[in-house]
Write a structure and sequence with these properties.
By secondary structure, the protein is mainly alpha-helical. It contains 44 helices and no strands. The chain starts with a helix and ends with a helix.
Length: 1019
Amino acid sequence: MAQNVQRQAILQDVLSQLQSNIAGFQTLLPLLSLPLARVGLLPPPFRKFNSLSNEDVTVDITKTFPQIQRILLESILPTWETTLEEEGCSALTLQYFCPDAFSNASSSAGNVALCAYSTILSLPIRQRCADILLRLTKEYPIDRLFKAVYSIHDPAKRSVCWDDCLRDVFSVPSKIANTLQGRGVPVDLGLPNYYNNLSVRTEHLIYALSKQSVPDDVSFVARLLSKLVNVGAFPGSPHLSPSQPSFCRSTLPSIRRRLEENDTKSYQKLWNSIMSSLPSMLTQQAILVSLFSSMISLELPLSVSTRDRAMIRREAVLLRDLVGDLNPHDDPWHSLLAVCLARSWSENHARVFVCWFASCKQFSAQALGAFLSHIVEVWSASEHIKHSLLSRHQYISTLLLLAVTHFAPSSQQATSVALSPAFISAIGTYISHLDSSVRRCGMLVAEVVASRAGKTLDFGDWEGDEDGKAWAKNLRQLCSQRDVDFDPLPEDDTAGGDHEEPVDEVAAEEIARTDVRQEPVLAPATQARPVTPGDDYDSDDSLTGYAPPSSSRSASPTPSELWNIEKDPTLRVGVRRIFRPVYLAQLGELVRSSSGLRSSEENQEADKIEMALNVGEELIRRKRDYGAELAENVANLVYGFGSLNNNFDLDDFDNKRQRIMVALVACCPRVTARCVIEEFFKNQYSTEQRFVMLDALALGARELASLPVYSSDLQPLPITRTAFPSKTLPPALHHKYLAKGSQSHLQLLLDGITQAAIDKGQEATADIVPEIVRERQLRIRKPGKITEAVSGPSQGLLPSQHCPPSATTFTDVAAEFFIMPFINRFWVFLREEQTREERTAQRDVLYQYRGAGTGLVLNPVVLAQFVSTMAILVHASQNAPQWLALIAPDALELAVTIGSRQITKPMNENSNFDGKDNSPGSKKGKEASVLTSALDLSLIILDGCLELDGGRSLSLEHTALLIGVGEWASQVFGLLEKGVLVEGGGGIHEVRLRRAAAGVILKVDELTSKWRRSMVDVK
């Protein structure tokens, strides 16, 4: 007992001296050498300094080394680091944290590394700590630490030590990033590289354990994989950024290579055990999703070439080797069903899944049959049929057909599917679907399942490539053979040559896949003979065509001959030539003749309209600043082009008409806007013509506001075509002021505006921090320039000679000519329509007037476009002086009224889509497009108020309106969260509706939280 106390006293004395002020360098080295020598980690070059060695002293690494490591980091290294480097003894201190390669294999070295992780991460991180951690991650990775932990004999202590090890290892990158504030972080300690390297070492650990017989390794590795899932190392997207770590992307090449080896049963068995012993179903699903997303996809998902089928078979074998044989009674089965059926995958994944189920060695038929029943349940669900996107319909249909065709014809499984009541009922729902591509998914499944069940069913109309017919043909051909019947493609053949030809490919598909640069192959009888110098060779390189066959018919005229015939005046007797108009009155006569249509000119009506469409925009833009001619004729042009129909099937009719209407609004906004607004509310126009008017107002307003028009077809004409020579700018200025547009049209404009309004909330806090505000001002604000003052008596006498009249901007005319007349005219029109409905309400249904009929203004299609146009106008006029006082509150009231009230009598007052009063709009339901447009308009107005005056005027002067908007948006969002379906919803409409409602709620909350004390009297 006394000897043990004496041994501990010696070690305690060493620790005390290390903590105290050390007299000299020669005193430090023996103190550092003693503990290392007693655990067998003292390097040979430093053994001469071990003068304090005592054979009776025992050192417990887990108790002693953390103390020495802390002393080194806090006291010794800050004082003696430079001296140790100069004397070449810095490796002695490093041995306390990261033993060298000579000692790496010993158990003591692993225990020292475990202590080093814990000690360094428990102290403030400095540069020397980051350097030590970088070396530890390279020389003592997770598989080496696992070996050190597993050397502990006590199971409970071993489990606790492994949890501590995982906690320390996974906290390294965040600790380093927080300490260094993202600057100067070593690449290998950065988030993506660190977890990628950790994933690679985890796979090395699994492979090493498969060569051994370790009883508890499965639970340890399962906990390690769970940690990787928690830090995002198993992403579910196939398209990853370089900053995203991915276990599968880092390890799948190595896993594939190891599975190709001869003895892989133990490796496969260990992977199967790990996947089945994962502690959480969510963890299992995350790993499966990432694994499925990382599989190799075919360029043509429905390809039937031998090589592509072999590749599908290889991916299925990979899943079988990693996840194992599928048993419907095991725990991973439910996770697998959730991943395969709850998410939307591609047809490539559908082929791999079915081939995987069919490749199982023990439960193939049982697993595939259970999987088929769940597929039929999803495929037959009415919610799936009505609201799923086309890609998901094709994925589920592919799964169902591939699963059915893997069973023999007239088998029990195929017959049960064909006779299932849910399946039969779903076919009728599919056939009544409005989308023809979705409808063909149901028809194809019905035909194939019926044929597999021994029945005959043929809907016909499968010829062609439109409306999903090409996809159905490819899928039907794919089901003619099974992928499981092909041998897996070898790993070294993945990047081989081109795809082989399909087994039963039709000639049309072979032509489509042939390289267009390939020379045509001639038949042997007609193949050209190579020309030799001895033949009758003509040096002329001109091409010689085939001799025409003998015929009694005369040769067809050439294009030049046809042109001469057309120009021959003797052949065009009585035919008037359509001259190019040079005045706007002449342009109006071409589309809206004031003298009436004479019988002799009926055959020239198409030529007149074509001429007007070809030159209309150019002529209108030329007359923009040329006197009062445009203002005098604009009303006639609006009536003529607005009511124009494509009765003669003219080329590019819609685009040319739209460009002319936009040019009218942009060049003469004061007159054109009022004419368009007045004509819009007349009942003589079709839906298409109303859309042209609305688009003209929106796009013309954006042109006046110098905002881009995201449509290459609707860009204004180049200035060189519309400006007079005296007003043409130099070429450099032409390129400077050209509008840059991409993509297309009104809905894209509105989506971009609303998305920008939502994204502004993320930057709201940046204006609060003074440092960020000052940095932004220094970066953006330019210093004022010194200009020379011009002196002279003539300055200011003739301003018209020096300053040309400024062009009209949208802020000058937005309130008076666009927005306010549009809103006021809508209220008048709505009052008149409701009055007409009330007058005819007592009549029979057949004679009742309905303001929301097809093509009318209050129809949901037109009404949604009207509100979207109003949103674009409001956004473009944000800098107008009347915006806060007039435009914003009146437009917001319009949006709330349209979105929350039933403004017209429905077709059937007793009809409701679910029989309950739970629609987001009103008691009779509200179309999703109208709701979305109204919410988008509200979102744009609220964002503009926040940007202009912080929402002060709207919050204090229109408090009730603001609160009403918040309650309306909250009700809509709440009902959507409860699963209430909106008329006309589903797909992209539902996504846009949720986004708009959430954006309005956030904007209202931002406004009310800022001005709540001024809005509500708390006394």
